[in-house]
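User: structure tokens for this one?
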Amino acid sequence: VYELGLPSLKTALCHSRDSISLAVSSELEKNERVVVKPSFSRFASKTFILKKGDPLPNEVEPNTIYPWIVQEAAHGPEYCSYSVAYKGKLLAHSVYSHEFTAGKGAGICFENQVVPEIEAWVSKFVEKIGYT
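Assistant:
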């Protein structure tokens, strides 16, 4: 995403527990929290937010087929977005917040939000990679 000129959170792709441990330690030297999660997941499944001194949960089991990421923790309100795109053109876009969840991340009550910065970011991303 950096190569596309779009802002994003610092993220490390990890294929072993050792690489995750190193990335977590490095990130926690600069920030109070770090996010550890599978690189492919939904609804915050197996997402962990760690602070200094927290052990790496046993569920964190990355490998070459199913890598995990260590990511800088974002601050501020939490939003979700859903978009439809065809050949690099954004056709539909919605941003929403959720007050209630089933577990960590599956929203069950939604409220439409207008956040032009998110739509602009998604539109640029879709355009630059020709996403469908």
